[in-house]
Amino acid sequence: MVAQEAEVFAKIQAVLDTVDPNKPDRKVVHVFKIKITQNGEVVKTMMLDLVKIKFYEGDDEAECTMTIPDEILADVVLNKAETTGLITSGKVTVDGDVELAKLLGATLSQ
């Protein structure tokens, strides 16, 4: 994903930039950890805090952790793949609430 990393991270930030933190009926108000892998090894861990509306590299506590290959993360964020099917097929693993992971995938692919 090195070639696409900037594009993927910019798209995630663009989605965050559309979030109104004062909107009382926001659907996704959770903290996510995204472990990005290459060849089965974690190469980067990103935090997506939808409470504070922040996206950053780190390894903090999260309500849901997704482990996802770099190219699949790119496909999800760039609207080329759908999270639910990837979770069901085992290409994406989830530690925590699977429904939150599905909701995050839908949010990122806006």
From TrEMBL:
Residue span, SCP2 domain = 27-108
List, alphabetically, the InterPro entries matched: SCP2_sterol-bd_dom (IPR003033), SCP2_sterol-bd_dom_sf (IPR036527)
Fetch the SUPFAM superfamilies from UniProt: SCP-like (SSF55718)
Q: Which Pfam families match?
A: SCP2
- Superkingdom assignment: Eukaryota
Question: What name has this protein been given in UniProt?
Answer: SCP2 domain-containing protein
Q: Which source organism? A: Chironomus riparius
